[in-house]
Specification:
Blueprint (H helix, E strand, L loop, with lengths): L3 H10 L6 H10 L2 E4 L2 E4 L17 E6 L4 E6 L4 H11 L4 E6 L3 E6 L2 H18 L13 H13 L1
Antiparallel strand pairs: 1-2, 3-4, 4-6, 5-6
Length: about 160
């Protein structure tokens, strides 16, 4: 949705009568912001500087895709910014990133590097995760996190 007028029209098509001014108030109350021409939800964490830790609030999920690939889901249109922050960190585990609008494909140098990267994410997210969350399993899809954990225990 690119404009409040577009949202009013979409709601009207669903049989919901509203006005642009009430939409504006509702968006403000829900902390929905317009970013690059699109409305997005507020990150779960305050977004600060362009370094990785400053952008943690834009990460919505992380999971393994095989032994050398990690998929990072971000808030809409945040993929490139988060990937650039990861690239700027120059982590030895990361062979490269391929960002999309809200998804990042991240290649690791080895399976061990993938495990080390997940450990790195755990440290960052445990330290500054969403309010009330003192571990990050909620951000990892079950298959990716459990599979990585089981492989590490076996190895």
């Amino acid at each position: 949705i690119g404009s409040q007028a577009e949202l009013v029209n979409l709601l009207k098509a669903l049989g919901i009568k509203t006005t642009q001014s009430s939409i504006s108030r509702d968006l403000q109350e829900l902390v929905i912001r317009r970013v690059n021409g699109r409305y997005v939800l507020k990150p779960w964490r305050e977004v600060g500087a362009g370094d990785f830790e400053g952008l943690l609030g834009l990460i919505q999920g992380v999971n393994a895709a095989g032994p050398y690939m990690v998929i990072i889901n971000t808030s809409p249109y945040a993929g490139r910014m988060v990937a650039e922050a990861i690239d700027n960190e120059s982590w030895p585990e990361v062979a490269g990133t391929l960002p999309g609008d809200s998804k990042i494909f991240l290649a690791t140098r080895s399976q061990e590097a993938q495990h080390a990267l997940f450990d790195r994410f755990r440290v960052y997210l445990k330290r500054s995760g969403p309010p009330g969350v003192d571990h990050i399993e909620e951000l990892y899809e079950k298959e990716g996190a459990e599979g990585a954990e089981e492989e590490r225990e076996e190895g």
